[in-house]
Amino acid sequence: MIGAAAPEELGLVISGLLVARRAWRFFTFTDTPPDPNDPLVPLSPATTPALLAAAPGLAYSRGVQHRILVRLALAGTAALLATAGCDPAATPEAAAPVAAPATPAAPKAGAYNVLVVVMDTLRADALGAYGQQRPTSPVFDTFASEGVLFETAWTQYTWTLPSFVSYMTSSWARTHGWDYSMGKLDTYKVLDSKTPTMADVFTKAGYATSGHFANMHLKAELGFGRGFETWQLGTEAATVRAAVADIGKWKDDGKPNFLYVHLMAPHVALLPTPESQAAIGVSVAYEPKKGISYDHYVAAPPELKEQRRQELVDAYHACVRDGDNDLAEILSALKASGAAEETVVGFWSDHGEMLGEHTHIGHNQYVWQEVVKVPLVIKAPGLAPRRESQRVGRLIDAAPTLVKLAGLTPPPEWQGQSLFEGEQPIVAAERDALVTFLQNGWKSVEDRTKDKFMYAHDLTTDPQELTQVKDVANPGVAPLILTAQAWRAQVPQGENTGGDLTLDAAAHAETVQQLEALGYTDKPDAAPK
Ligand SMILES: [Zn+2]
Question: Domains of the chain (ranges plus CATH)?
Answer without folding.
Answer: 2-89 (no CATH), 115-421 (3.40.720.10)
